[in-house]
């Protein structure tokens, strides 16, 4: 996969406020092909606001949002999707009782024939679903089985694979491992790094879990109270430091100082 | 790209897709329980009621089944789409009345009455759907409302116009013979009279099955009933699908109404009450989930067939016809339990 030098997404000094509350301030972010950018932060840190802006749910009101070097202002997720920016939320938009392959193509069904004989191209859709899932390391015995019978991790992967199949260049994954056990999280993380590395997709991975982020991330951003607390490439970061920032960073130091009378030293940067 | 079952293809994982044993695939179908039930009920009456064994009795059973099955197949689609229609029973009578009265009182032409009734029935369906979407109420409540309104209107307007609870005979009007040939004729096979309604019923079931399993719309119907929000998120026009399904029920009511009108020439304005529950029961016995997203058209036909056998079987066995209601209730409970059990087994993957 050739990697272009122009980043797919570039945010410059992005901000968003509701009335006089600043939900987000001065965020710079670059998403390149084949890179996993992890966005971490506590509840209310501004993660949701940030991904909603990127996914086109609502527009930013400060700074610049560039896609392929061109400034954009989205008013609907459809516009973002047309440029290949797809968000996969925790609800996944899957229908539990519907077979896997029907879910995969739901809303974008392939048809053949014409007039009253227009019908689903069932064989093609089955084969494409199987191919796409197999590429991601999921081997389902029976694609006719309802999606609800899959494990949580498999369901995540089906939803992600669907977004990739329908042309996503940038995937926004909203806490894909939040509700999963260890093995299932592993499956999803494997898939995330695979999608980025092998298919050259830019991934924005939102998570609470620094361990998960550190496993797959190329670039890390920690948000706190709507501002960037940490923004650094993998080469300049250790897991300990990431955890320190996740646990509250400077705020935690102050807290510790207040409780014990002495501040902790930030572990090796 | 082939996905046909191929034993030699085990080395290629894709070919594993359909190597499941046939009986397991049959058991996974929503109508599996109803098929078993139909066979059991058939054997039961075959043993207990000798007249039931004749071919003529069988065609009568099929006719009974068709009069339940024509609306039931549309109701099944609506239930898969996640909604109820309690107004379907009286809507049939409304449609007959509309055709009869428009033809005799307004237009003076039966054809005009038939066409008017069709638009009227489609309109009732659309109204149900629009009310559902606008008010965001449960369809149970919305259609209970339209059910009671139609029930009242049927009798009140008939009395107002004809001064009677039934409409006048239309068999003398121009065009009656042609329309009767279309909607309510009979033909002979093997010495038994067969109503054309049976043929229409089977065609409708086949069409509905095709639409459900082999078209985009069918995929959407399952998705809308299974999880409307997810379907909307991937671009399925949820509201249009639901309104369309209500209009389909309207169409099926109109069709049965035209059959009944041209078979009996007059319409009793109080008829049809309670039938909506039979349509729903047939769909549920046939494997439809009350919560939507699951079911089949063939299942509704098997459900209707079971009720047809029961109606006639009770008569052939010389029992009091009131046993029919008891039997319907018992079948419904049993079928629901069996279907739930089968579905649990089936959805456990293997």
Task: Quickly describe the structure.
The complex is a heterodimer of chains A (269) and B (350). Chain A is of the alpha/beta class and 269 residues long. Chain A has helices at residues 47-55, 77-82, 100-104, 122-135, 152-165, 182-199, 210-216, 239-246, 250-260, and strands at 9-18, 21-31, 36-41, 62-67, 70-71, 85-88, 111-112, 119-120, 170-174, 202-207, 219-224, 227-233.
Question: Explain this structure to me?
Answer:
- The complex is a heterodimer of chains A (269) and B (350).
- By secondary structure, chain A is an alpha/beta fold.
- Chain A is built from 9 helices and 12 strands.
- Chain A has a single domain (29-237), classed as Rossmann fold (3-Layer(aba) Sandwich).
- Chain A has helices at residues 47-55, 77-82, 100-104, 122-135, 152-165, 182-199, 210-216, 239-246, 250-260, and strands at residues 9-18, 21-31, 36-41, 62-67, 70-71, 85-88, 111-112, 119-120, 170-174, 202-207, 219-224, 227-233.
- With 350 residues, chain B is mainly alpha-helical.
- Chain B contains 14 helices and 2 strands.
- In chain B, a hairpin with a 2-residue loop joins β1 and β2.
- In chain B, α2 runs antiparallel to α14 (323-346) and α4 (88-107) packs across α11 (238-264).
- The two termini of chain B are 25 Å apart.
- Mean pLDDT of chain B is 89; it is low at 1-18.
- The A-B interface holds A 91-98, 102, 105-109, 111, 118-120, 122-124, 126-127, 130-131, 134, 139, 141-146, 148-149 and B 1-3, 13-14, 16-17, 20, 28, 210, 214-216, 218-220, 222-223, 226-227, 229-231, 233-236, 289, 293-294, 347-350.
């Amino acid at each position: 996969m050739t990697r272009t030098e122009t980043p797919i997404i570039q945010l410059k000094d992005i901000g968003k406020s509701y009335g006089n509350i600043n939900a987000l301030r001065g965020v710079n972010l670059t998403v390149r092909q084949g890179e996993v950018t992890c966005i971490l932060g506590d509840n209310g840190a501004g993660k949701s606001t940030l991904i909603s802006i990127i996914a086109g749910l609502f527009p930013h009101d400060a700074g610049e949002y560039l896609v392929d070097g061109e400034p954009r202002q989205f008013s609907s997720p459809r516009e973002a999707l047309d440029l290949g920016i797809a968000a996969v939320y925790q609800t996944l938009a899957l229908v539990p009782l519907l077979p896997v392959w029907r879910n995969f193509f739901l809303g974008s069904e392939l048809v053949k024939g014409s007039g009253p004989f227009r019908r689903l191209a069932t064989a093609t859709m089955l084969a494409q679903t199987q191919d796409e899932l197999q590429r991601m390391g999921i081997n389902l015995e029976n694609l006719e089985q309802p999606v609800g019978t899959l494990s949580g991790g498999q369901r995540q992967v089906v939803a992600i694979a669907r977004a990739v199949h329908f042309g996503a260049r940038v995937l926004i994954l909203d806490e894909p491992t939040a509700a999963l056990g260890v093995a299932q999280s592993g499956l999803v993380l494997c898939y995330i790094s695979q999608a980025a590395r092998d298919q050259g997709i830019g991934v924005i991975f939102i998570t609470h879990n620094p361990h998960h982020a550190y496993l797959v991330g190329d670039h890390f951003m920690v948000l706190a109270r709507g501002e960037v607390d940490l923004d650094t490439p993998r080469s300049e970061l250790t897991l300990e430091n990431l955890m320190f920032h996740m646990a509250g960073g400077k705020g935690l130091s102050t807290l510790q100082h207040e409780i014990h009378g002495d501040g902790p030293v930030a572990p090796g940067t | 790209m082939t996905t046909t079952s191929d034993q030699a293809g085990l080395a290629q994982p894709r070919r594993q897709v359909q190597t499941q044993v046939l009986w397991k695939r049959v058991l996974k179908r929503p109508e599996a329980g109803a098929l078993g039930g139909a066979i059991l009920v058939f054997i039961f009456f075959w043993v207990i009621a000798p007249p039931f064994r004749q071919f003529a009795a069988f065609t009568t059973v099929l006719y009974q089944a068709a009069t339940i099955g024509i609306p039931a197949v549309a109701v099944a689609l609506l239930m898969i789409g996640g909604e109820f229609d309690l107004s379907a029973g009286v809507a049939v009578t409304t449609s007959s009345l509309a055709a009869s009265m428009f033809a005799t009182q307004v237009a003076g032409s039966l054809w005009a009455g038939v066409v008017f009734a069709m638009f009227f029935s489609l309109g009732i369906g659309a109204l149900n759907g629009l009310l559902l979407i606008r008010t965001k109420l449960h369809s149970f409540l919305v259609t209970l409302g339209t059910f009671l309104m139609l029930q009242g209107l049927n009798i009140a307007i008939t009395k107002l116009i004809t001064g009677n609870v039934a409409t006048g005979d239309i068999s003398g009007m121009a065009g009656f013979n042609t329309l009767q040939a279309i909607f309510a004729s009979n033909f002979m096979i093997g010495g038994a009279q067969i109503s054309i309604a049976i043929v229409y019923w089977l065609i409708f079931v086949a069409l509905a099955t095709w639409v459900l399993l082999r078209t985009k719309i069918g995929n959407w119907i399952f998705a809308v009933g299974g999880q409307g929000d997810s379907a909307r998120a991937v671009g399925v026009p949820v509201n249009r699908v639901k309104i369309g399904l209500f209009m389909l029920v309207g169409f099926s009511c109109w069709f049965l109404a035209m059959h009944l009108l041209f078979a009996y020439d007059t319409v009793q304005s109080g008829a049809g009450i309670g039938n909506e529950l039979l349509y729903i029961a047939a769909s549920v016995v046939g494997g439809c989930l009350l919560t939507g997203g699951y079911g089949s058209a063939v299942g509704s036909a098997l459900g209707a067939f079971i009720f047809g056998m029961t109606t006639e079987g009770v008569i052939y066995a010389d029992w009091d016809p009131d046993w029919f209601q008891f039997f319907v209730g018992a079948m419904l409970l049993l079928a629901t339990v069996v279907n739930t059990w089968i579905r649990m087994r089936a959805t456990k993957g293997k």
